[in-house]
Amino acid sequence: MTDPARDVVPAPPPTRIAVRGGGHFPVRRIYCVGRNFADHAREMGAQAPASKADRGTPVFFAKPADAIVTSGDVPYPSATQDLHHEVELVVALGADAPQGVLAVEDAQALVFGYTVGLDLTRRDLQAVAKAKGLPWDVSKGFDASAPAGELVPAAEVGALAARTLSLEVNGERRQSSTLDALIWDVPEILHELSKLFALRAGDLVFMGTPAGVAALQAGDRCIARLDDVVELHCRITSPSL
Length: 241
Ligand code: MN
Prior knowledge:
6-stranded mixed β-sheet; 5-stranded mixed β-sheet
């Protein structure tokens, strides 16, 4: 007789991100926002909204929780010739949202902290998916597609709007924007997400990238920054290493 309560395969360990000041943040889900900076929407050939009233609804997609990389070593993925960097603000939720739609004015209270991350993208496969109206999963949700830095408690980060998000590759500045350029800010995104999903402690939200996305090669070294608040260092390794 076998134990009916037993796991039939080993349970995977949860993905964890180190928190500045001690402890770890176990990751439940990763939500991502597309086209949240007008300059990036335009560089991808999409229309940017002319005003807040013209925003429509945000573009959302997801990555699996175990796509997070905290070691700094990111293997160049299979099945692409065009791996792109997208530097992003990452929001970490420290509390469950109440039942129903989360009010914009109540959203900030759910935020545990922030870091910087990369929404790595198989741009060639995404272009095919867009052209054919197919899902983005294979272009966005692949293994090791979400390098992320140390989580910084929200109180240490303070007001986001004047902060600058940037990415350097091999010492050259590739992407840079202040966060007041976000089309949908953090409370607005959490409000919109809550219409679609039950937000929970442990959820991460990648907030979208500014202009300047470009290809990465094996051997490249990236430094993503949110001002002097937090830095993420990573290196693209050859898949054979
Ligand atoms: Mn992105």
